[in-house]
Write a structure and sequence with these properties.
The structure holds 2 protein chains of 2 kinds. By secondary structure, chain A is mainly α. Chain A has 2 domains: 3-478, no CATH class; 574-604, no CATH class. In chain A, 72% of the residues lie in helices and 4% in strands. Chain B is mainly alpha-helical. Chain B has one domain (3-308). Classes of the chains: A mainly alpha, B mainly alpha.
Chain lengths: 605, 311
């Protein structure tokens, strides 16, 4: 067995062992999970450095490490370790521990298998297995999570079924299910259909519209570490990996299919962020952003030019980093305050400085503030979109404006988060919550520092290290010198640092030392103790505007939720069968009797 | 570019923006005074104001997030200095630019507003919270038509997002403003600029008569001085950015007279800002949102379509 084999088998076997160990040995379970996730991260680093490996079993190349899959497994491994570490603190004292670590490890093994698969049938098996572990992990949120788990199962499982059909179609088209075959042009109806089916599966996993609705429900009820691990980071990596794999390698996309991706991307960005603006629950709000950001990745991949795809893939990694960080911050707040309801939070910055710091960095990164990592990848996606203009057509303006305006809306939404959770006035007077412990603080800080590092050293570390090589093999080398010119994110950082130094000099020229603390000034009015500006209603101005009010109302009634629409649709078709199920025993018995009689008549004829 | 050169550019950018911005602020106050039949301040009044603010003590309100409250002004100042350095360098060496610098400038220009919002939120004052949230909604309002208006020169210059190429294109082919779509987009961007600078009728974040300075209510001393300086610098950077996009700014290689010409245009824009702010009442934030989203944005879309048609 080679490294690839170990990478997949070790977490799966360890997961099975953890599942068997009785709950009394909690420390042992945690220890095994931590060690195994560290070992798999190490193996994934080794594989990443090796860069190329074809792993043969039964005489066929079943697994393959190439430039695209190698960096994805690196990040899957990284998030596996980070999330297990965080879980040690977060899951303490919670029920369902028996399943939790086992399914974390199963997920890790399944994700490695799905990414490294060189055969569509192998990919399909691991993909299906991941759906199951996702369901089980959401179930660890307790009884209230079962609704969300069911919804996830229906959406993800349903699109898995589409994936089966897609794989079958590929086999019909080419007679092979290998992923290393020459690419299929999407010109015939059948190949277009196959690509759309693949795209649906990728969209559901990554959470692009219209298959997004499992993510907000999951985020609200599942343990936050699960949300940070799966929908926020690893599922994004998997979904966008599949999308990139099929759009760049398996198929040769026509203009129409590109258009489909661009429309889905642009629409997802705007629609999801508009929903995020008006949420009242921190985790739900973050989850809508997890949907919205997928739009940028789909948009980037949909441009199919080197810089756009590189931007999309870079955004995928960046998103996993800052959204993982944000969810972890949300989890820490939940751990200390016992709620994520924005109406009940406030003023935590003074008590939880590390969480606040991580949250500010990640929030600015997701809003695309230079020089953080989110800015660099969005900037690359924008350039990819503008490059589309060179192919003729003017639609790029729509994608560009949607993406840039979406970014402003994201910023607005995170200003609200920072205000309601960390700044403003504290809701519970008298209590002073403590900062979270090191096992929870370290993962948050590591991710926040990565946001900074990948922004400042964007070219020298992530882009040159793994993003550009991944794109290079299919689309050719993006002209780095042409689009960087004399500017580099490092120089931008230098500029900003010097600017801050100038400001500091001005500060020092003044009497900064003579600061004095005084009560705040509200124009002499007396503000009652129970009145405070929470910020949850900041954007009611938007949701109260005539046109938007209708849409928000409809959205609240789940009018746009594929799950609910599908439910109504299927209930409509099966209403006849539902009528048969009366729940009365004599009715069932008489049906059975009738059936037996029919059988006897047929058999004795 | 070496580190020393980088620092040099930034210092030049900062000084240019600070000096011209102070002039713009004086000009604004002087014209306002004349409109109101007063004498107005002396020429060096902004310098006196700044020095006086630096000499005052800084008061941090109780319950504030001290670090964020005091550091927020720095980020705004740094961002506007970077934009100034970028723009000035592009005017001097238009052929040495980088792809997407336009997007960098647009993004950097929102940082001063973000700094105001974060500083306001950090002060824990309810009025500042209101002011901060209004500033955020103001960004949402103008950002959409602003981006659309900026796309017009982008399309005119052959679908490029390099500022230098847009400048060079205008040097050879004539200014963007010399077309129907160019005029419409320029007017729209002027209106958006008014909102970006938070001047009347879009001064809801401050609204002295209503929420007493709103976002700035708790700021004093050097911290307030930094915010004021940033505001003044924005009065140079934003009009200058629009001049580069729509008029081609200073085509100084052709003739030195062009610098005088550019200065006159700049003063014209300042006059526009000042006169608008002196002759209009303040709008409510919901009115502003409706104004930008329902009225200005469709016009901006028309301008973009016209630009594609080559008009």
């Amino acid at each position: 067995m080679d490294l690839v084999g170990y990478l997949i088998v070790v977490p799966l076997v360890a997961g099975a062992i953890v599942r068997i160990i009785p709950d009394a040995f909690k420390g042992l379970k945690e220890g095994i999970a931590l060690i195994v996730s560290a070992v798999t991260f190490y193996i994934s680093i080794l594989l990443f450095r090796q860069g190329w490996l074809e792993s043969e079993y039964f005489g066929r190349v079943i697994f393959k490490v190439d430039t695209l899959s190698s960096f994805v497994i690196l990040w899957v491994g990284f998030f596996g370790l980070i999330m297990v570490l965080y879980s040690l603190g977060y899951m303490r004292g919670k029920l369902y521990l028996k399943q939790y670590y086992a399914y974390m490890l199963f997920t890790l093994g399944g994700a490695f298998g799905a990414v490294l698969a060189n055969d569509l049938v192998v990919l399909l098996s691991f993909w299906g297995f991941l759906g199951l572990t996702l369901f089980m992990l959401i179930e660890t949120g307790g009884p209230q999570a079962s609704g969300a788990a069911k919804k996830t199962m229906v959406i993800v499982g349903g699109t898995d079924a589409l994936l089966v059909l897609a794989v079958t179609l590929v086999w019909v088209l080419t007679g092979s299910t290998s992923l290393s075959q020459p690419s299929i042009p999407t010109i015939t109806g059948l190949s277009v259909f196959a690509f759309i089916l693949f795209a649906c599966a990728a969209f559901a996993k990554a959470g692009a519209m219209p298959f997004h609705s499992w993510i907000p429900d999951t985020a609200e009820h599942a343990p936050t570490s699960v949300v940070a691990f799966l929908p926020a980071s690893v599922d994004k990596l998997l979904g966008i990996y599949l999308l990139a794999r099929v759009s760049l390698y398996l198929f040769n996309l026509s203009g129409g299919m590109m258009l489909l991706l661009l429309i889905v991307g642009a629409f997802t960005i705007i629609a999801a962020v508009m929903m995020a603006l008006v949420q009242h629950d921190l985790k739900r709000l973050l989850s809508y952003h997890a949907v919205s950001q997928v739009g940028y990745m789909v948009l980037g991949v949909g441009t199919l030019n080197p810089i756009g795809v590189a931007g999309g893939l870079f955004h995928m990694v960046n998103h996993a980093i800052y959204k993982g960080c944000l969810f972890l911050c949300g989890g820490s707040v939940e751990k200390r305050e016992g709620t994520t309801n924005l109406d009940e939070l406030g003023g935590l910055a003074r008590y939880m400085p590390l969480t606040f710091f991580s949250c500010v960095i990640a929030a600015l990164a997701i809003s695309g503030v230079p020089p953080l990592n989110g800015f660099v990848s969005k900037w690359m996606v924008y350039q990819g979109v503008i490059e589309l203009g060179k192919r003729g057509g003017h639609a790029w303006v729509i994608w560009l404006v949607a993406a840039m305006f979406g970014s402003a809306l994201t910023l607005a939404s995170f200003m609200k988060v920072l205000h309601t959770v960390f700044l403003g006035v504290r809701s519970k007077k008298g209590e002073s919550p403590k900062e979270v412990g090191p096992t929870m603080a370290i993962p948050m800080l590591v991710l926040a520092i990565l946001c900074l590092g990948f922004g400042i050293f964007a070219y020298s570390i992530p882009l040159r290290g793994f993003i550009l090589p991944a794109v290079q093999r299919v689309l050719g080398m993006p002209e780095v010198s042409a689009w960087l010119g004399w500017w580099s994110p490092g120089l931008a950082t230098l500029f900003i640092v010097v600017g801050i130094v100038i400001g500091l000099i001005i500060y020092l020229a003044g009497r900064l030392k003579a600061t004095r603390t005084d009560s705040m000034y509200v124009g002499g009015e007396i503000i009652p103790a129970e009145v405070r500006v929470t910020g949850t209603d900041f954007y009611n101005t938007v949701s109260d505007m005539g046109f938007f009010r209708q849409i928000y109302r409809a959205a609240q009634k789940h009018a746009f939720d594929t799950y609910d629409i599908g439910q109504k649709f299927s209930f409509y078709f099966v209403r006849g069968f539902r009528a048969i199920h009366t729940g009365i025993l004599p009715h069932y018995l008489s049906w059975m009797l009738a059936g037996i009689m029919v059988l006897i008549i047929i058999l004795l004829r | 570019m070496s580190i020393v050169q980088g620092i040099g550019y930034l210092v030049i950018g900062f000084l240019a923006a600070a000096i011209i911005g102070m002039f713009a602020h004086w000009f604004d106050r002087k014209i306002t005074a004349r409109v109101q039949w007063r004498v107005g301040p002396p020429f060096f009044q902004p310098v006196y104001d700044l020095v006086k603010l630096l000499a005052k003590e800084v008061i941090v309100p109780e319950g504030a997030s001290r670090f964020l409250f005091l550091s927020a002004p720095l980020f705004g100042l740094a961002a506007v200095s970077v934009v100034s350095a970028l723009l000035i360098r592009t005017v001097i060496f238009p052929q040495q630019t980088f792809l997407g610098d336009l997007i960098v400038v647009i993004y950097l220009l929102t940082i001063p507003s973000q700094a105001v919002i974060l500083g306001a939120f950090a002060s824990a004052n309810p009025l500042a919270s209101l002011g901060g949230s209004r500033e955020m909604k103001l960004i949402l309002s103008y950002e959409l038509p602003f981006v659309l208006a900026i796309l017009v020169p982008v399309i005119k210059a052959g679908e490029t997002i390099k500022l230098g190429v847009i400048l060079q294109h205008q040097a050879t082919e004539g200014a963007v403003i010399a077309s129907i779509s160019g005029v419409i987009a320029f007017v729209i961007s002027l209106i958006c600029m008014q909102a970006k600078l938070a001047k009347v009728p879009f001064d809801v974040p401050e609204a002295e008569t209503e929420i007493m300075g709103g976002a700035y209510i708790e700021y004093s001393g050097a911290a307030l001085g930094l915010f004021k300086l940033t505001q003044w610098m924005m009065m140079f950077v934003v009009p200058f950015f629009l001049m580069m996009l729509f008029i081609g700014a200073v085509n100084w290689r052709q003739s030195w007279l062009n610098i005088v010409w550019a200065a006159l245009i700049y003063i014209g824009i300042l006059l526009f800002i000042t006169l608008v702010r002196n002759t209009n009442p303040r709008l409510r934030i919901d009115q502003i949102m409706k104004f930008f989203w329902a009225k200005i944005t469709p016009i901006a879309i028309v301008a973009v379509i016209l630009a594609f048609l080559g008009l």
